[in-house]
UniProtKB/TrEMBL annotation:
The lineage of its organism: Eukaryota, Fungi, Dikarya, Ascomycota, Pezizomycotina. This is NAD(P)-binding protein. InterPro entries: NAD(P)-bd_dom_sf (IPR036291), SDR_fam (IPR002347). It comes from Apiospora saccharicola. Keywords: NADP, Oxidoreductase. It holds the Pfam family adh_short. It comes from the Eukaryota. SUPFAM superfamilies: NAD(P)-binding Rossmann-fold domains (SSF51735). The keyword Cell wall biogenesis/degradation does not apply. Belongs to the short-chain dehydrogenases/reductases (SDR) family.
Length: 354
């Protein structure tokens, strides 16, 4: 199986993936919030991407409520980011909490690299990164810089690049940590229920990544779902290579939430569905904050839903998933070779085991 099997579940991946189970989750009540009695983030620094609205902004609020000392709001639109920062500044609980807005455009590798380089200045005090930014386009489009389909570029390739570059920063943090350190840092990649419903018709294509750049293969719902499935396959493979002592890397599903700009291109039917079935962004953010601050090292390489470790999409555990995962890993490392992806994996793997 492609996934880490060190964790047992009280539900099968197939049961977890059922539409009935999804409806139950949406209407069964809110997952518990992480409280300051449970976690105190005073003295810690956190990054949240896609932070100027929706779930990202709510993650920022909840991290500040937990006492985080430095918060980096990573945004594509800095003007909107500054407006959101002002709102948070007015409500923060302590004058010793600092909030900054940094530019990050996941449609651009150059922007991702520049952001990660800037994040190195947070040493030795980068503790949390919640990678929330994503897109769900209503039509096919290729990224003019890379030639890859835009959903795949943003939700998968650029998110993986940022994850790898931040792992290097977390490795440096781990190396500098004192014996009294509060443990490894956390990288949370936002996932989705839809990963379990992806048809993933491209899985047998060789090479795999270029197949997503063919317009004939594009389907609005399935493409977004597939990008989230690719993220699950990647994290499962990453956890095999990078130990939790370097950084705990996990996935978190906020559930279907209204008040998010993610589905703004999908039209009125999607908006109605989100209003009828959706949670508030504040409730959705709870699982992300739990994954970042409320889970221990057992969540490394795992999927958090309603603040509990749950099975990933059934395909992740399928017999043929290992072959597909290996192909995806090799192609992803090749795509990101300009940033030294393989070297980063080698460095952080060795550092975590010494």
């Amino acid at each position: 199986m492609a996934a880490n099997t060190g964790v047992t579940f009280d539900i099968t991946p197939e049961q977890e993936a059922s539409k009935l189970q999804f409806v139950r989750r949406q209407f069964s009540g809110a997952p518990p919030a992480v409280s300051r009695d449970d976690v105190n983030l005073e003295g810690k620094a956190a990054i949240v991407t896609g932070a100027n609205g929706g779930i990202g902004l709510e993650c920022c609020r909840q991290l500040l409520d937990l006492g985080v000392s430095k918060l980096i709001m990573a945004v594509r639109d800095e003007q909107k980011g500054e407006a959101a920062r002002e709102t948070l500044t007015a409500a923060k609980s302590s004058a010793s909490q600092f909030i900054e807005v940094w530019k990050l455009d996941l449609a651009s590798y150059e922007s991702v690299v520049a952001f990660a380089r800037r994040a190195e200045s947070l040493q030795p005090r980068l503790d949390i990164a919640i990678l929330n930014a994503g897109v769900n386009r209503g039509s096919f489009a290729l990224n003019p810089e890379t030639g890859h389909e835009e959903d795949v570029q943003t939700n998968y390739l650029s998110t993986v690049l940022l994850t790898l570059l931040l792992l290097r920063t977390f490795k440096q943090r781990s190396s500098a940590a004192s014996p009294s350190s509060s443990g490894p840092g956390r990288i949370v990649i936002v996932s989705s229920d839809t990963a379990a419903w992806a048809a993933f018709a491209e899985k047998d294509q060789t090479p795999l990544l270029p197949s997503f750049d063919e317009e004939a293969r594009f389907s609005t719902f399935d493409r977004y779902a597939t990008t989230k499935l690719l993220g699950q396959l990647f994290v499962a493979e990453l956890a095999r290579r990078v130990p939790a002592s370097t950084a705990v890397v996990n996935l978190a599903n906020p559930g279907l939430c209204h008040g998010s700009a993610l589905n703004r291109e999908l039209g009125l039917p999607a908006a109605i569905l989100m209003r009828v079935m959706g949670r508030t962004a504040a409730i959705g953010a709870r699982s992300l904050v739990s994954a970042a601050a409320g889970q221990d090292a057992r969540s490394h390489g795992q999927y958090i839903e309603d603040c509990v470790i749950r099975p990933m999409a059934p395909f992740v555990y399928a017999e043929d998933a290992q072959v597909v995962s290996q192909r995806l890993w090799k192609e992803t490392m090749a795509e990101l070779s300009f940033a030294g992806a393989d070297k980063i994996i080698e460095e952080v793997s060795q550092a975590g085991r010494t």
